[in-house]
Specification:
The structure holds two protein chains of two kinds.
Chain A: E1 19-20, E2 23-24, H1 29-50, H2 58-78, H3 86-103, H4 115-137, H5 155-167, H6 169-202, H7 204-240
Antiparallel strand pairs in A: 1-2
Helix pairs in contact in A: 1-2, 1-3, 2-3, 2-7, 3-7, 4-6, 4-7, 6-7
Chain B: H1 2-24, H2 36-169, H3 175-194
Amino acid sequence: MAANPMTQFEVYRIGPEIRIGTFDISFTNASLFMVISSVAILVIFNLGAKKNLMLPNKLQLLAEISYSFVSKMISDTAGSKAKPYFAFIFSLFMFVLFCNMFGMIPYTFTVTSHIIVTFVLAAFVFIGVTIIGFIKHGFGYLKLFVPSGVPIVLLPLIVIIEIISYLSRPVSLSVRLFANMMAGHTMMKVFGGFVVSLGILGGWLPLSFSVALTGLEILVAFLQAYVFAILTCIYLNDALNLHH
Amino acid sequence: MIKKIFFQLIFFNFFFLKEVFAAESGGMPQLNPEFWISQIFWLTLTFGILYIVLSKLILPKISANLESRKSQIQDNIEAAEKQREDSESKLKEYEDIVFKSKLEAKKIFKDSREKIIKDINNKKETLEKQINEEIKKVEKEIEVVKKSAPEKINRVAIETSSELVKKIIGAEINNSSISAIVDDLSKKNRNKYYGN
């Protein structure tokens, strides 16, 4: 049973079954780690923001570095107009990062390795960006699908391609994160299984691979959160500053 | 030998694991929609709370902290700049004072030197005058002595010659005739005796 690398992604109920109408909204292990990640973010950043020391302590430094990191990322990719959406992108980045990082602890559950979670997050971004685009530019936002300087003959094809690429944004955004997390954790589990089955004689090689993979996965956990946030910034930039 | 066993173990393990996977494969739990609604609900709830608390309470505080530190640092830099300017002007003042006092010292030195030179010159002059006067006086005295000297000598010569004549010859000779001879001799040899 332990050898199956997919069992780590199974969702199970914790506590009683809760139902609203026909919907099952029971508290599961996935919900538990969502709550843990959110609480961890809130506790760390609350402690980091509490005291305003001239020489910041470690937590304050952490909070302020994260703040300026995300702030710089947004202003670099989406310009100064994106300032009102800072809090959303910051929460998104931190939520994904903390979920990924909690997933790296053995025997935990990785929230972001579920397509439904990443898809809902991507849908937030997609719907929000589309609404912002239409509010800012009205129907002029549809010009996003009509690039300038394209020959008339090619225009119908280009418009169709642009529309498809726009609609596939939430899919690519969610699948990228989900697939990365799932693949990494599956691979680590497979190598872990090798260590157990090869025993004391042959287990050292997969064990060393496992150690190296842990480092790689921590990097991937950070990188995917960063990619998720920066792609959100790029989509937001499209909605705020129409380039086409 | 150990190597061979090692690779054999790895080789057979693949068969073993494949069988295990085949036996337990139930697909991806991610695609089982049983808990999708639950996950969507809890994600919306936790992420919503996270977003609201972060955006309303925590992020403004961090932003204010950063701003206040920035402004404090800016203030400190400005204060330091002002102090630097102050000290620069003070330094300039000090240098001015030093320069002025140097000039003054030079002037005082020059003045006193001139005064001393003047004094020395004055004293020299008066001294020279005094010396000259003394010399003139002495010269006059010498002149007087010079003038009176031949007469005295003549008289002494007359007396001694009359005495000598009296002793040698034993006869009284008229002084006037002796004086005539002495005068004549002295007139002849004046230049020989008193020649300057």
